[in-house]
Amino acid sequence: MSLEKNFTASPAEASIADIDIEEGLDFSEVPPAVRYVICLLMTVMATAIAAGFDRYEAIPNLSLIYVIPVVIGSVFFGFGPALFSAVLGALAYNFFFTEPRFSLAVGDTANIWAIVLLFVVACIISAITAWGRHKSIDLERTRRMQAALKTYAGRMTTSRSLEDSTTLTLAAVTGFFQSPAVVIFRERADGKPKVTGAEQLSAIEIEAARSAWDSRLAVTGGVYPYDESRFDFWPVANACGQSAVIGVAFDPDRRPANPDGMMDIVALVFGTAIDRYRA
Q1: Are 169 and 270 in contact (CB under 8 A)?
Q2: Domain count along the chain
Q3: β-pair partners for 233
Q4: How far is CA 205 from the centre of its chain?
Q5: How are beta strands 4-5 and 194-196 bridged, if at all?
Q6: Beta bridge mates, 184
């Protein structure tokens, strides 16, 4: 199936930079292997510090030093690396600081309880801290999304043509989700859709888009019967009978938990623009 691509630059394209959502430094984006290596190094440093204290002065509750890597890991890297730090900390404390030393065997029952307590406390702290971190990230992302939607709606009210509105919508959606986006109109006399965007769509993706505008319901990519589609599609509601859908090709590993709320608002604003220029 031949598809027409129409992505024309406009003055609006040069003024949408601030619609993009600038994410802060998110250490969860660090590759998993690097996160675990950093946690390993922090545990090694904690062991060196504990060994220094243990060499010159007997300190009670020396095991609490190993809680520090757990807290740091949970704050910056999430629950998995923090749990990894907890396991390493319990093993290191057992190996270096309980009798018999330099062995995983435990000669004193009291030390068994100390190791178990260290592990349990570290797990609880890592779970609570990681949960708080995720909530903080979600709240910050919501705030940025709301600000970006406000900017997008304001720009749409001053757009000068349907082409400008389409360009603004594509730029805004790409900025929202950091993913490729397309707008598809079903308006040509030959029945073929007009695709606006930088992505070439496959036949199955065109079928998914048709399903969205026929059913007036969102269609999720990667799910039967459109498991080979990269795009999720949302229909654009308007009063003038113009059929259009907005598609976003999410990275499967970074797909937002609930993009429907934001996309419904974008579709509503874009549908209003279509009515304004096609009435």
Answers
A1: yes
A2: 2
A3: 219, 247
A4: 23
A5: parallel
A6: 195, 245
Instruction: Examine the domain organization and report whether 128 and 99 are in the same domain.
Output: yes
pLDDT-derived band at 8, boundaries 50, 70, 90: very low
Domain assignment present for 166 = yes
Residues in contact with 199: Cβ distance below 8 Å, sequence separation at least 6, in sequence order: 180, 181, 182, 249
Q: Identify whether residues 16 and 40 lie together within a single domain.
A: no
Amino acid making up residue 228 = E
Q: How confident is the model at residue 191 (pLDDT cuts 50, 70, 90)?
A: low
Distance, CA of 264 to CA of 177 (rounded, Å): 14
Q: Say what the pTM is.
A: 0.60
Residues whose CB is less than 8 angstroms from the CB of residue 276 and which lie 6 or more positions away in sequence, other chains included? none
Question: Looking at residue 4, what is its pLDDT?
Answer: 38
Lowest mean pLDDT among 111-125, 139-153, 163-177, 202-216: 111-125
Residue 151 lies in a domain: no
- Cα diameter, the chain: 87
pLDDT for 233 equals 95
| Structural contact between residues 9 and 211, judged by C-beta atoms closer than 8 angstroms | no
Cα–Cα distance list, 252 to 177, 181, 249 (Å):
12, 15, 9
The number of angstroms, rounded, from the C-alpha of 215 to the middle of its chain's C-alpha atoms is 28
Domain housing 176: 4-24+159-278
Q: Is residue 150 part of a domain?
A: no
